[in-house]
Design a protein that fits this description.
The protein is an all-alpha fold and 463 residues long. The protein is built from 22 helices and no strands. It is found in: Membrane.
């Protein structure tokens, strides 16, 4: 190990493990580049990147797991270098998230008549919250299926963490909505977490454009042309960023395993298996929903899985939004108006993974640990609290954490927050599945609403 501050603090490369891991990362990137040059299908490169990331992460951590040098220094250094590729890519995608949301909402509101906006809003909330209620029921089911015990996951959080979560969750329902109303447009545009606030700002601008297009068409036309040019430019930048996705996925998956450690993941295997069972069950529920609206689920998943893989790797519903919109409009045949509206709201309302399955599981676990009688009345209360809470947490950063604490407080278990520390310790691993479910549920909801509205392009979907 090299002890010089130049290597340990500045270069972040002071161990043999770090140097070898960097070389492996470079080699893997070259392999992905070669596949790109050979014009291998984008979806196949996504899967290959995911597999290479798994092999890198598991291999590196297993080899160094018993060495103090790796555990004390190497793991952090390797994570920093892999984050340069993985997290660097995510930042590029997140860079586009707010402008995409802002421009999409303006496009929808200005192009759609007032009556359809009302219908679209009602249908969107019905589908998003309906699937959230189902996902909450699935969360309860998997806890009982695996007979998980809340006490098995007890761990101590720091006092600061407990206070932060308690303060957020203790806010009243009106306060949550009040905090969604922006008071600084610059802050809204600079914060990817404020999706709903961005929607509000976009809707205000769009409403003004609709009014001025009738009253002062000549004066507002240059602004409309500017927005159209901005949308075209942002889409072009988005396409170029998306081309880098297989590289980012590979580094993100590897880093998730290395930074948490294989042993930590194994210690919480029961909970991880349970939540991924819930994810798989919900993917099955989506099949039934798609069949009910006359859409082939095989075709849907075939076209949606690259977006699902990206969501799984990136752990960011908002960061995935630009690619979600592209998939809905270009591959799945959803109209631009519906995809922009439903997918945008779906990043912060009715998230089936972060605000559905996950908090319902934790609420049921803690209830079992403190001796609450498990009956139909309690389960119905969990579903209601989780579903209502999924609206209240809209636009708040750290959605899954807040959703969990809102649910626990809503059920009267606020004092039990410290017991879920162990679960938050493996949060990045379960967050992959949760985010994939969020995004998939959002895409399914967009398809359902578009079919419901009669604007779905079945020919494009089947092409």
């Amino acid at each position: 190990m090299l002890d010089s501050p130049f290597f340990t603090q500045f270069l972040k490369a002071s161990t043999v493990y770090t140097f070898v891991s960097i070389l492996l990362l470079i080699a893997s990137l070259l392999v992905m580049k070669k596949l790109t040059n050979k014009k291998v299908d984008f979806s196949k490169r996504m899967i290959i990147g995911l597999v290479i990331g798994l092999i890198l992460g598991i291999g590196i951590d297993l080899i160094g797991a018993k060495d103090a040098v790796y555990l004390e220094q190497g793991r952090q250094e390797i994570s920093a270098w892999y984050a340069l590729v993985g997290s660097g890519f995510i930042r590029l995608v997140q860079l586009l998230a707010v402008p995409v949301v802002f421009l999409s909402i303006i496009k929808v509101v200005t192009d759609v008549d007032a009556d359809r906006i009302k219908n679209l809003t009602g249908k969107t909330f019905a589908v998003l919250l309906g699937t959230t209620a189902i996902s909450a029921a699935v969360g309860i089911f998997v806890v009982n299926l695996y007979n998980l015990q809340g006490a098995n996951f007890a761990a101590n959080l720091s006092e600061a963490q407990v206070n932060r979560m308690s303060n957020i969750a203790a806010q009243s329902f009106p306060e949550f909505f009040l905090n969604l109303i922006p008071n600084n447009i610059i802050n809204v545009m600079g914060n990817n977490g404020q999706v709903v606030s961005t929607v509000i700002v976009g809707a205000l601008f769009a409403s003004a454009i609709r009014f001025l297009s009738i009253k002062k068409p000549d004066e507002v036309k240059p602004f409309i042309d500017l927005l159209d040019s901005l949308r075209t430019t942002v889409n072009s930048v988005l396409i170029n960023v998306i081309k880098l996705m297989p590289y980012g996925v590979m580094a993100l998956v590897a880093n998730a395993i290395i930074s948490n450690g294989v042993n930590t993941i194994l210690d919480m295997a029961g909970f991880i298996i349970a939540i991924y069972t819930g994810v798989l069950i919900m993917l099955g529920v989506y099949i039934i929903i798609l069949l009910l609206v006359g859409v082939n689920p095989i075709t849907f998943y075939k076209k949606a899985y690259p977006t699902m893989v990206f969501a799984f790797s990136s752990r960011s519903s908002v960061g995935t939004l630009p690619y979600t919109l592209k998939t809905l409009e270009e591959d799945l045949g959803v109209s631009g108006q519906t995809s922009n509206f439903v997918a945008t709201l779906g990043t912060s309302i009715g998230m089936n993974g972060c605000a559905g399955v996950f908090p319902a599981m934790l609420g049921t676990l803690i209830a079992g640990a403190v001796g609450v009688e498990m009956n139909i009345a309690f389960y119905l209360m969990v579903v209601v609290v989780v579903t209502v809470g999924s609206i209240g947490i809209a636009g708040v950063p750290g959605t899954a954490t807040v959703a969990a604490t809102v649910t626990l407080n809503g059920l009267g278990f606020g004092e039990a927050i410290p017991q879920i520390g162990a679960i938050f310790g493996i949060d990045p691993i379960v967050d992959m599945g949760r985010t994939m479910l969020n995004v998939t549920g959002s895409m399914v909801s967009a398809v359902v609403v578009d079919r419901w509205d009669g604007t779905f392009d079945m020919e494009q979907f089947n092409s």
